Amino acid sequence: MEGLWELIFTPLGVALFLGAAFFLFIWNSSKSHDCWEKLGVPYVKPKPFFGSTLDNTKRPFHENELIRYKDFGLIYGHFEGAAPLLSVADPELLRNIMVKDFQFFANRRGLKTGDTITESMLQLLEGEDWKRVRSIVTPTFTTGKIKRMMDIFISCSKVLVDNFRKVAEKGESVDAKKIYGAFTMDIIASAAFSTKLDSHNDPNNEFVRVARNVFHKNVNYRFIFYLLFPRIMRLFKVPIFPPEGVKFFTDVTLRIIEERKRTGQKRNDFLQLLLDTAEEQKIEDKSSEKSDEILNNYESETNDQVFKNFHFKKSILFHSFFF
């Protein structure tokens, strides 16, 4: 026995132990990499441990999806580490997933970051929380409400045209990506945060600087690490987005909301649309609670049990009482 322990703690023993541990680690991370082959589904060849995620360090996610779609067709498999994923581009199947069988596919991928703000994003919410927030957000994208922000779009477009004109007058070449990126930033700042910018001519503005930092390329790496090492990332509290940026935009948004509540001021921007819709939702919820109370009182006082066999929608029931 003593000889065995002596062998283990020799350089050879340590090397053998580390080699065996590494082999088991790779085997465990790769043991599911044959699942799509067994099912006869075309798939992206995975790398040990990383799966198919390394491609996302070279190109954005959507570009990889497009390349894979062209290479493998409407349905193909890939891997995030050891986890098998299926990408679907078939319109009929997507219609079933998104509409007919939506109850089975309601939630997106789970991504627990430990950050309250990030986990409250619509893309990461699940179940009733997702349904509640979506019911608030969806009405803001109707044609009529988007038209209310046309003045913002027109104002930012005039700044864009002026910037193009200045470059043209100088006879210089133009970096289209940079100038349109500034235009996009101006619209987002004005429509969502009530902040008027000229990002092209004022690139050192704090809003512009923080926004660029938040969506810097390394965010892609952080997201990949969260997919591969979720527990480790949560353990060390590594955020997906830079904390400085999240805090900045959180503070700006809360400050604007408090100011509008205090002064009663309104503006035709996206934030105001969300506030108005949330208020409408609150009124609707109160109406639903009132209709429930009326129904309960009515059922407790009447001997007629016929109405108990009907399952009226709350809103319809409330309006029937109203009329």
Automatic annotation (TrEMBL):
The keyword Iron applies. Pfam families: p450 (PF00067). This is Cytochrome P450 3A29. It comes from the Eukaryota. Belongs to the cytochrome P450 family. Its main location: endoplasmic reticulum. GO terms for molecular function: heme binding; iron ion binding; oxidoreductase activity, acting on paired donors, with incorporation or reduction of molecular oxygen, reduced flavin or flavoprotein as one donor, and incorporation of one atom of oxygen; steroid hydroxylase activity. PANTHER family: CYTOCHROME P450 FAMILY 3 (PTHR24302), FATTY-ACID PEROXYGENASE (PTHR24302:SF15). The chain crosses the membrane at residues 7-27. It is found in: Endoplasmic reticulum membrane; Microsome membrane. It is a peripheral membrane protein. InterPro entries: Cyt_P450, Cyt_P450_E_CYP3A, Cyt_P450_E_grp-II, Cyt_P450_sf, Cytochrome_P450_3A. GO terms for cellular component: endoplasmic reticulum membrane. It comes from Trichonephila inaurata madagascariensis. Keywords: Endoplasmic reticulum, Heme, Iron, Membrane, Metal-binding, Microsome, Monooxygenase, Oxidoreductase, Transmembrane, Transmembrane helix. Its cofactor is heme.
